[in-house]
From TrEMBL, chain A:
It is a lipid-anchor. This is Ras-related protein Rab-14. Pfam families: Ras. Gene3D superfamilies: P-loop containing nucleotide triphosphate hydrolases. It is an enzyme of class 3 (hydrolase). Belongs to the small GTPase superfamily. Rab family. Its EC number is 3.6.5.2. GO terms for cellular component: cytosol; early endosome membrane; phagocytic vesicle; recycling endosome; trans-Golgi network. The keyword GTP-binding applies. Keywords: Acetylation, Cytoplasmic vesicle, Endosome, Golgi apparatus, GTP-binding, Hydrolase, Lipoprotein, Membrane, Methylation, Nucleotide-binding, Prenylation, Protein transport, Transport. GO terms for molecular function: G protein activity; GTP binding.
TrEMBL record, chain B:
It comes from Aromia moschata. Gene3D superfamilies: 2.30.29.110, Endonuclease/exonuclease/phosphatase, Immunoglobulins, Rho GTPase activation protein. Its main location: membrane. It comes from the Eukaryota. Keywords: Cytoplasmic vesicle, Endosome, Hydrolase, Lipid metabolism. The keyword Magnesium does not apply. It is found in: Cytoplasmic vesicle, Phagosome membrane; Early endosome membrane. Belongs to the inositol 1,4,5-trisphosphate 5-phosphatase type II family. GO terms for biological process: phosphatidylinositol dephosphorylation; signal transduction. One of its GO terms (cellular component) is phagocytic vesicle membrane. This is Inositol polyphosphate-related phosphatase domain-containing protein. Residues 198-491 form the Inositol polyphosphate-related phosphatase domain.
Length: 219, 787
């Protein structure tokens, strides 16, 4: 169990969810590459990113799944919630509709993850103060009522809240790590979203033995 | 001289890496070796980082014109074993023999006397001198030794950078496992950037105190040098010879001696104890100047007992300081002159059995090792008086030749690779207590250098090696050695920065080296999809990443297959190399009643992202795949119905217009009228019967029918009573048609046996379930009825 000085002790699986166009992929890109991705195309599928961070002296590898936000993919992206240790739920502070849909995203998250999954609410695009459509206070209240962590951030990294992108990912990890320390998160549970050993990214819900039935019925 | 062969030097240089500089060459060298007399050889002196090596190259021609003419024959490092000489050839005025020796190699070449040869020889001699000043490292030669006398290698001569290795490793898809070792490797490469060599003075002392309690200050020994050392490693042997000490491995003497040590250290500096290890009357204490104390890490020690109780005990102590771990070993080996083999064995045992728990590496793998103690090796073959005389005459060299340790070491039996400084002090054993007089007792043991200090490792320079005659309370004199040792000190700020940069770089690589593909379309749309008219669309998956991408269409949560029945994906999985593309065919075939087709396919990259591909299209309404009941409710071709009319018919809400579907009647009628040229229509009828939304004989009656197959009455009853009206109509209608057909079996060649079998599969409507068995049963029913 002891990790060498350069190894990482844990892998945490994250998902990023929220309406289309709220900047989920930009947040991921900002976090993994420290760059703002202008003209980011719509994600049609689930993007994958990874980064190693340090929490309380422990190296932790984050495996981040950035899901498509389009409504029509909703049924498919639900497959990816399972086994997430952290869920970053994103809305766009300049579009109220994306905020209004949060309860539906939250319901999905609660239903499809386990109770110890840390949910972090991110109000993205806070650099566009002039176009603000959702107040900080309102969202903050929503977060509080639902027991979510909350921050406003900007993947564009303009203004003084740019660092909050980093913070959201790190704070989530800290909370997960704390759950492990407190024993609230059962590492042995398949769906804890936390692994001890390094491994290849993969989804535990979509297994490989799927083609058998298909092959047989092609007659 | 360089100008003379500059073109050839350039060619020779091409054989080497650019950092390996060809300093000088000599052409037209022939070996004084009978077999290869005729070869044109070139001698080349090559420098890399102030180390030199002499290369013997075989040239395909007298003067090479390209590097493919050259082949490396021999590599000789210019180190301490290297020497060169010349010898005149008797009958020749123009040539001399150039002799190169190194370890077991002796090479002789015939060269022409001239400017070229004298220049070359002087360069070689100069390089030999340079190598004496800095101990050369010849790792760079390893790659050439492997290629000696083999075919030319023209490739791999470019500069190596660190990144290709990473890329290669990551490309192999084992990033998670290799990441740590890669990082270590990268850090090792960058070590010079975050460490600096610092010189530490190290005082190593050993004293066999012969069971005496401490009674005098140790300062004459420990403070022998003017300036305070950075580190002390002090070993004692025979602290307590009492039986209790051996039995309980615990004696107050140890603490007493340690107290004297702590008090006896240099007053000009403050010291802290790093660790203390004890074993049966022996102890090794390591003390460090307190300003260095915070940097000491991974302290670990172990003790190893060898031999019989009380006879000898060996223990040792390892400690890691800043970057490279070092170790100091204190030991007390077996006593008595004749026991030298025992001592050798003890030494081996210590090495074999040492196990540092915190940092489990062998003694020999430590960067620096100091070996001290009462090694107990004696002087052989000389009588006590001879020894004493030689000591008195200060002819220590003669005595040292008779020293067992020197002899055994020379034979490679013990402390191989360890270095000991020149001994300029008289033997440290055995003295009358409180005197400087060698043993005058009855035993009159011959004096010996039992107490020794050796070292092993890079960057250790012995300042002085001495004994301390004025310490008289034991029958041994203490010995000490002052070293100046280079230790790599990590600059924590630089280290942190480099470490973080590397981590970021690895994160970046890891993300960059995730499999990446793009598809030319994520929306696959079909034209109007018609019954049993396959349509194919192609998507192109392009690998835009750096690594091979293994793709596969995977099933969604709660689904049983990766796509719907109406779709075939060819291929549904595969591997695409970077820069290449793969065409995937999506073939849709409609055989059921659907208004439209729609599905989201998940294209998964192994170890990477997933992409969603949406497949969609509208379907044409068709009388095939409709229900018998609905078809009996329509009196026009299905395509002519309005949505509403069709909805009513499908839900059995409109009135029944026909007793059998119009389509069946049309086809049967056609067959009846135009017998002979009816293949297409007959096939259509069969298809029609095969694909009706619900089979003619409903699913729920299949098993009953099979059970009743051998009994005509039962069959009849099932057909008449349990099959729904419209379905029974169809069944009877077909049967009557077949009956009619069989009347003309003489003309059409069909008979009651072949005909039903021919059509029965569809007609009976038993499908979707193991056909062969049930078909047989159903055909029986049919034949019974039709007869």
């Amino acid at each position: 169990m002891s990790a060498g000085p350069y190894n990482y002790s844990y892998i945490f699986k994250y998902i990023i969810i929220g309406d289309m166009g709220v900047g989920k992929s930009c947040l991921l890109h900002q976090f993994t590459e420290k760059k703002f991705m202008a003209d980011c195309p719509h994600t049609i599928g689930v993007e994958f990113g990874t980064r190693i961070i340090e929490v309380s002296g422990q190296k932790i590898k984050l495996q981040i799944w950035d899901t498509a936000g389009q409504e029509r993919f909703r049924a498919v992206t639900r497959s990816y919630y399972r086994g997430a240790a952290g869920a970053l739920m994103v809305y766009d502070i300049t579009r109220r509709s994306t905020y209004n849909h949060l309860s539906s995203w939250l319901t999905d998250t609660r239903n499809l993850t386990n109770p110890s999954t840390v949910i972090f609410l991110i109000g993205n695009k806070c650099d566009l103060e002039g176009q603000r459509d959702v107040t900080y206070e309102e969202a903050s209240k929503f977060a509080e009522e639902n027991g979510l962590m909350f921050v406003e951030a900007s993947a564009r990294q303009m203004g003084n809240r740019g660092d909050n992108v980093e913070e959201a990912f790190l704070e989530t990890a800290k909370k997960i790590y704390q759950s492990i320390q407190d024993g609230r998160l059962d590492l042995n549970a398949a769906e804890s979203g936390v692994q001890h050993k390094p491994s290849q990214p993969g989804r535990n819900n979509l297994s490989a033995d799927q083609q058998a039935s298909k092959d047989n019925c092609a007659c | 001289m360089l100008a003379v062969h500059q073109d050839v030097i350039n060619i020779v240089q091409a054989k080497f890496l650019s950092a390996e500089i060809v300093k000088s060459i000599h052409l037209n060298v022939s070996a004084l070796d009978e077999t290869y007399n005729d070869d044109n050889r070139i001698l080349a002196l090559v420098e890399y980082n102030k180390t030199f090596a002499l290369f013997v190259l075989i040239s395909a021609r007298k003067k090479p014109i390209s590097i493919s003419d050259l082949c490396i024959e021999t590599v000789i490092p210019i180190d301490e074993y290297f020497s060169c000489d010349t010898e005149p050839i008797e009958e020749s005025q123009s040539h001399i023999i150039f002799i190169i020796t190194s370890k077991k190699i002796k090479l002789q070449f015939k060269i022409e006397i001239g400017i070229e040869s004298s220049n070359f020889a002087s360069e070689v001699i100069r390089s030999k001198e340079v190598s004496l000043y800095n101990p050369p490292v010849f790792v760079w030669l390893d790659k050439y030794i492997g290629t000696m006398s083999q075919l030319n290698r023209n490739s791999d001569l470019g500069e190596q950078s660190d990144t290709p290795i990473i890329r290669q490793r990551i490309t192999q898809g084992t990033t998670a496992i290799n990441r740590e070792s890669m990082l270590k490797y990268q850090l090792k490469l960058k070590e010079p950037e975050f460490t600096e060599k610092q010189e530490f003075t190290i005082f190593v002392g050993t004293w066999n105190v012969n069971g005496q309690p401490p009674s005098v200050s140790l300062r004459p020994w420990l403070c022998y040098d003017e300036s305070p050392p950075d580190l002390y490693a002090i070993g004692f042997q025979e602290i307590d010879l009492s039986k209790e000490a051996f039995l309980f491995n615990d004696t107050p003497r140890e603490a007493e001696w340690q107290k004297y040590v702590m008090e006896g250290m240099h007053p000009k500096a403050k010291y802290r104890l790093v660790a203390l290890a004890r074993l049966v009357g022996m102890q090794l204490a390591v003390m460090i100047n307190s300003q260095h104390y915070p940097y000491v890490k991974n302290v670990s020690y172990d003790t190893v007992g060898t031999g019989l109780l009380g006879k000898m005990a060996v223990w040792q102590f390892g400690w890691s300081y800043i970057t490279p771990p070092s170790a100091s070993v204190n030991c007390h080996l077996a006593a008595h002159v004749e026991e030298f083999e025992r001592r050798n064995q003890d030494y081996k045992d210590i090495n074999a059995r040492m196990n540092f728990k915190r940092n489990p590496i062998a003694i020999k793998d430590h960067e620096q090792v100091y070996w001290l103690g009462d090694l107990n090796y004696r002087i052989t073959d000389l009588t006590t008086s001879q020894v004493k005389t030689l000591v008195a005459r200060k002819e220590l060299n003669k005595l040292l030749k008779a020293d067992q340790l020197n002899q055994q070491k020379e034979r490679g039996n013990v402390l191989l690779d360890y270095t000991e400084g020149d001994i300029k002090f008289q033997p440290t054993y055995k003295y009358d207590l409180n005197t400087d007089i060698f043993d005058t007792s009855e035993k009159a043991r011959p004096p010996a250098w039992t107490d020794r200090i050796l070292w092993r490792g890079k960057g250790i320079y012995q300042v002085e090696y001495r004994s301390h005659m004025d310490m008289r309370i034991s029958d041994h004199k203490p010995v000490s050695s002052l070293f100046k040792s280079e230790i790599s000190v990590v600059d924590p700020l630089k280290f942190r920065k480099i470490h973080e940069d590397l981590l970021k770089k690895m994160d970046k690589y890891e993300n960059e080296y995730l499999p990446q593909v793009t598809v030319d379309q994520t929306e696959v749309k079909y034209d109007l999809v018609k019954f049993r008219e396959p349509q194919t669309r192609e998507i192109i998956i392009a690998n835009t990443g750096m690594v091979p991408a293994e793709f596969e269409f995977i099933k969604k949560l709660d689904e049983t297959s990766y796509c719907k029945d109406w779709l075939r994906i060819i291929p549904y999985c595969g591997s695409i190399n970077p820069g290449e593309t793969c065409e995937v065919k999506f073939e849709v075939t409609l055989e059921t009643s659907l208004q439209n087709i729609y599905d989201i396919l998940v294209l998964h990259l192994k170890g990477g992202k997933d992409m969603f591909i949406t497949v969609s299209g509208d379907c044409q309404r068709s009388c095939f795949t409709s229900s018998i009941a609905a078809l009996c409710r329509i009196n026009v071709p299905i395509m002519q119905l309005s949505e509403e009319e069709w909805r009513l018919a499908e839900n059995n809400e409109s009135g029944v217009l026909y007793s059998v579907p119009r389509e069946i009647w049309l086809m049967v009628d056609h067959l009846y009228r135009y017998a002979g040229t009816v293949q297409a229509v007959a096939e259509s009828l069969l298809l029609f019967l095969s694909y009706t939304k619900d089979p003619v004989i409903p699913f729920e009656l299949h098993d009953t029918c099979i059970a009743a197959a051998s009994n005509f009455q039962n069959c009849r009853q099932i057909i008449l009573q349990r099959v729904p009206d419209l379905h029974r109509n169809v069944f009877l209608y077909i049967c009557m048609f077949l009956q009619e057909l069989s009347k003309y079996s003489n003309d059409n060649g069909y008979d009651a046996r072949t005909l039903p079998l021919y059509s029965v599969t569809s007609c009976s409507g038993i499908r979707y379930v193991t056909r062969s068995r049930k078909t047989a049963g159903a055909s029986r029913i049919l034949s019974i009825i039709s007869s």
